């Protein structure tokens, strides 16, 4: 088991597969399962899993055999040993399972190939099974196994009856001498339980003595001759049983080739139906395999997370996009998204279905990843050292056909240097031409991803109201750390927040922080479509902005309307999607002046006032109304 399997938890998927298997041979094969690099093999494996899943859904579970002790029995037979009655029964049960499985598969045959085609290679070996069934039962060789054995056992029964009758006569004649009223068997011989004080009154041989010493078990001289005859018959019986077992062993050996074929078919079907059961348990679907370079996951789920608690993942990588850089808050699901992409890719190349509504994967020569802090106490490696050691190895091994997954790129060291290293790593991956996904917190990396050809930003969604991550991946947008916003919601002093914002984002002249400030990313991706729709004009000064002007805010080009002119510090009131905020005039770009949008006497309260405030204003203009107020928003 390699480290990649452990990191992406592919080993746990194999453990689940092994639990669905019936036989030890199938479990060994599933434990060694690896993604295939051969396109034909990948497609063949996937087709088998898909057909097995269809059969499972339509016909229920197949009658597979655990093949208990079959390997030991086959080995003994090949060494010219004698099979025991129990081992022969195992073989008979296996052959019975083969017959049932062949019948099960025959019902499912839509053509002569595929999973159902395994049934054609199964030998029923009805005669061998019947021979064993007629000779062996309950771990014993039956009297019907041979005429000689039947005759010997009849003689033993007759002699035993004679001995019992003679002993019963002695019991009735001298009842006071015996501690019990019945005949006993000790060391394979018929005896009478004689009290110690009467042991000399019964002629015969002492076979055993009770633990207390109060009872002597004596074989009377009158039955010794009959007992010796029974012992001789027992030897003959044992010899005849061995003849029967050797004969049946020889029959098994004659069919050894067919039995091995049946075992191989049973193991193969056990493996493929384990994959089908895993698919059914996950509600999984077959992925589309391609020789190209596109990864697409629709409503995908991490297979080890509970379905009802897992937020589906929509993800696309390929075409002109070689790499995706995911940003967002801690515990927001970035690492889970990263692992889901890698794990589902490995599962698809292993012929397994993936838990998703649909998926498409290219064939990758390897999946390389650096996920987790990797800190090592024994090797004295820091988190950063461990990451860099892994990344150096990944870069040396990655090819154009690799999928590379990097978590918390550049973390664990000085932010400025870590950011530089992160960009250098991404640039090298771009140069190699492989597909890659990386997560990071660095805003400079988001800026780099927005500008670099072949890269795309993505973020994990965050609920501003509950302060909780939504675990939903949104591609095409850079993520926000949300630290300032969260701090404000939790009561962090406003004055300190202003200082923090200026330190973090380069001298913002904010009089009062708003939600808009926290969620503007000055280094985000290229301007949005809104900014490209029409030519833009820059105002000369803050005082030039008028109520009703259509403006765009920041590099992202969020569209807003001016509802209040600039104050002494150049802060302009802008309404964006119904939310009013104060924004520095330097971050605004005029899109369309109000004079081109509205008539000179336009009532802007229609745009910026609530219905309740507008009604109150009109009423105040007509007459004085006690208690009537207008709610003014605080910014």
Properties at a glance:
single chain; 635 residues; alpha+beta; MutS, DNA mismatch repair protein, Chain A, domain 3; Rossmann fold; six-stranded mixed sheet; 21 helices; 44% helix; elongated; DNA mismatch repair protein MutS; ATP binding; MutS2; rRNA-binding; ATP hydrolysis activity
The top level CATH class name of the largest domain: Alpha Beta
Q: Taking all residues together, what is the mean pLDDT?
A: 83
Helix content: 40-55%
Our Rg estimate from Cα atoms comes to 42 Å
Distance between the termini: 59 Å
Q: Which ranges are low-confidence, i.e. pLDDT below 50, for 5 or more consecutive residues?
A: 374-380, 506-538
Shape: elongated
CATH architectural designation of the largest domain:
3-Layer(aba) Sandwich
Oligomer: single chain
Pfam families: MutS_V (PF00488)
GO molecular function, one term: ATP hydrolysis activity
Organism: Lawsonibacter faecis
Domain DNA mismatch repair proteins mutS family: 402-418
């Amino acid at each position: 088991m390699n480290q990649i399997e452990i990191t992406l938890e592919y080993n746990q998927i194999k453990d689940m597969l092994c639990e669905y298997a019936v036989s030890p041979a199938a479990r060994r094969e599933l434990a060694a399962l690896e993604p295939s690099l051969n396109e034909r093999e990948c497609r063949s494996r996937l087709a088998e899993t898909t057909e097995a899943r269809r059969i499972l859904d339509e016909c229920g579970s197949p009658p597979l055999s655990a093949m208990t002790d079959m390997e030991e029995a086959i080995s003994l037979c090949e060494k010219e040993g004698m099979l025991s009655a129990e081992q022969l029964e195992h073989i008979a049960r296996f052959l019975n399972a083969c017959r049932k499985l062949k019948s099960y598969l025959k019902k499912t045959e839509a053509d002569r190939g595929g999973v159902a085609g395994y049934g054609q290679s199964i030998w029923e070996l009805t005669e061998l099974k019947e021979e064993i069934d007629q000779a062996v039962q309950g771990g014993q060789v039956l009297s019907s196994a041979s005429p000689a054995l039947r005759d010997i056992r009849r003689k033993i029964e007759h002699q035993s009856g004679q001995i019992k009758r003679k002993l019963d006569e002695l019991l009735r004649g001298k009842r006071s001498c015996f501690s019990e009223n019945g005949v006993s068997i000790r060391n394979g011989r018929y005896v009478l339980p004689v009290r110690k004080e009467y042991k000399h009154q019964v002629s015969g041989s002492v076979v055993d003595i009770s633990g207390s010493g109060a009872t002597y078990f004596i074989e009377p001289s009158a039955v010794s001759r009959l007992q010796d005859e029974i012992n001789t018959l027992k030897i003959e019986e044992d010899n005849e049983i061995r003849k029967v077992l050797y004969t049946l062993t020889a029959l098994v050996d004659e069919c050894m080739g067919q039995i091995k074929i049946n075992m191989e078919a049973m193991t193969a079907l056990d493996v493929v139906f384990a994959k089908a059961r895993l698919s059914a348990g996950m509600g999984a679907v077959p992925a589309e395999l391609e020789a190209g370079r596109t990864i697409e996951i629709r409503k995908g789920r991490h297979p080890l997370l509970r379905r009802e608690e897992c937020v589906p993942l929509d993800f696309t990588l390929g075409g002109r996009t070689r790499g995706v850089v995911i940003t967002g808050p801690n515990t927001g699901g970035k690492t889970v998204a990263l692992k889901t992409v890698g794990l589902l890719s490995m599962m698809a190349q292993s012929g397994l279905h993936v838990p998703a509504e649909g998926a498409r994967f290219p064939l990758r020569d390897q999946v390389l990843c650096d996920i987790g802090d990797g800190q090592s106490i024994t090797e004295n490696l820091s988190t950063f050292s461990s990451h860099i050691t892994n990344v150096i190895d990944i870069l040396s091994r990655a090819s154009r056909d690799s999928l590379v997954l990097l978590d918390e790129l550049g973390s664990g060291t000085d932010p400025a240097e870590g950011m530089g290293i992160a960009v250098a790593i991404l640039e090298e991956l771009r140069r190699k031409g492989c597909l890659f996904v990386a997560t990071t917190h660095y805003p400079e990396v988001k800026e780099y991803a927005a500008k670099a050809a072949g890269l795309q930003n993505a973020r994990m969604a965050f609920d501003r109201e509950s302060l909780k991550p939504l675990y939903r991946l949104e591609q095409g947008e850079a993520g926000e750390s949300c630290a300032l916003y969260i701090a404000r919601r939790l009561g962090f002093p406003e004055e300190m927040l202003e200082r923090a914002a200026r330190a973090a984002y380069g001298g913002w002249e904010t009089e009062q922080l708003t939600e808009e400030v926290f969620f503007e990313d000055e280094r985000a991706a290229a301007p949005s479509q809104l900014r490209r729709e029409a030519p833009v004009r820059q105002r000369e000064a803050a005082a030039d902005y008028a109520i009703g002007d259509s403006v765009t805010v920041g590099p992202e080009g969020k569209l807003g309307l001016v509802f209040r002119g600039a104050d002494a510090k150049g802060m302009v009131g802008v309404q964006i999607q119904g939310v009013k905020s104060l924004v520095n005039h330097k971050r605004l770009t005029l899109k369309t002046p109000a004079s081109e949008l509205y008539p000179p006497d336009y009532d802007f309260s229609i745009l910026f006032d609530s219905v309740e405030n507008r009604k109150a204003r009109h009423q105040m203009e007509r007459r004085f109304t006690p208690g009537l107020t207008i709610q003014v928003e605080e910014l």
